[in-house]
Amino acid sequence: MSRIAYFGPQGTFTEQAARALAGGEELIPVETVRLAMTAVREGEADAACVPIENSVEGVVPATLDALSESTPLVAVAEHILPVHFSVLARRGGGDIKTVASHPHALAQVREWLEANLPDARPVASSSTSAAAVGVLDGQFDAAVCAPVAVEHYDLEVLATEVADVSDAVTRFLLVRPPGELPEPTGADRTSVVAAAVNRTGTLAELLTALADRGINLTRLDARPTRNNFGEYRFFMDFEGHVAEPRILDALTALRRLCRNLRFLGSHPRADGTRSTIEPGAGNDDFVDAAMWADAVRKGDLA
Ligand SMILES: O=C(O)C(=O)Cc1ccccc1
């Protein structure tokens, strides 16, 4: 049985995603996203389940930072969860003066809190379940949690189905040390993080390397390198799988353009969306062009 570290404690959205991605495996709750990945890097877990991006709030910065540091990990699977929240409080508790949750959760219920708990001060906690634990401990008066949290924490449900944007979703990754990659399916996503040299036009060059090969970008985020003020790493997700000639060609182009390029995985997309293939940019076109160039080089073609 594999050991899967997940961003816990018990009852987080990430636990729900981990169950969907690796249900029969041993699930180990870990306090932060970074520590979940450290558990994998240090061999205490075989894989980690972490949140990566939300349709309302965007990327989870802690996940990007942990993916770019230390030894490489690659994403081998993803899961998308619809996200709505339950608001929990101590049984028989008094006024709600503080309401705690993960910053992503607070950002997604801001309007609801203003309308329903206008006097409560929002307080950031490390995860939605950490907020529930804080309510039990008397640290906060209410917590904005995943619906499953009530199964783990003896708290009263003040409200369910809370969400300012009703169809919000969060995408989660299963990451593990580099090894055999999942097979390409035609509906895949590839991720990289690029440390480009700091000169005019470098980001445009990276994006052009993809655009020239007809590769559709699905996410672009920048995070500071932390060492040099003004220097950034670019996280790019795009359609396709490294096993495809067109994607491999793009990766080698990116590698030439970057001071440092880290491959973060190729895996099937949870939404099943198949890659867009532009005219002249299919895998057959790349194979055919490479064969033609090879023949020219060998002098087989006039
Ligand atoms: O704190 C959690 O439950 C998480 O898994 C992170 C998170 C927070 C808010 C929305 C989706 C995921």
From TrEMBL:
It catalyses: prephenate + H(+) = 3-phenylpyruvate + CO2 + H2O. GO terms for molecular function: prephenate dehydratase activity. Residues 3-177 form the Prephenate dehydratase domain. GO terms for cellular component: cytoplasm. The keyword Protein biosynthesis does not apply. The record marks 170 as: Essential for prephenate dehydratase activity. It holds the Pfam family ACT. Pathway: Amino-acid biosynthesis; L-phenylalanine biosynthesis; phenylpyruvate from prephenate: step 1/1. The keyword Repeat does not apply. Keywords: Amino-acid biosynthesis, Aromatic amino acid biosynthesis, Lyase, Phenylalanine biosynthesis. Residues 191-269 form the ACT domain. One of its GO terms (biological process) is L-phenylalanine biosynthetic process. Its EC number is 4.2.1.51. InterPro entries: ACT-like_dom_sf (IPR045865), ACT_dom (IPR002912), Chor_mutase/pphenate_deHydtase (IPR008242), Preph_deHydtase (IPR001086), Preph_deHydtase_CS (IPR018528). This is Prephenate dehydratase. The lineage of its organism: Bacteria, Bacillati, Actinomycetota, Actinomycetes, Pseudonocardiales.
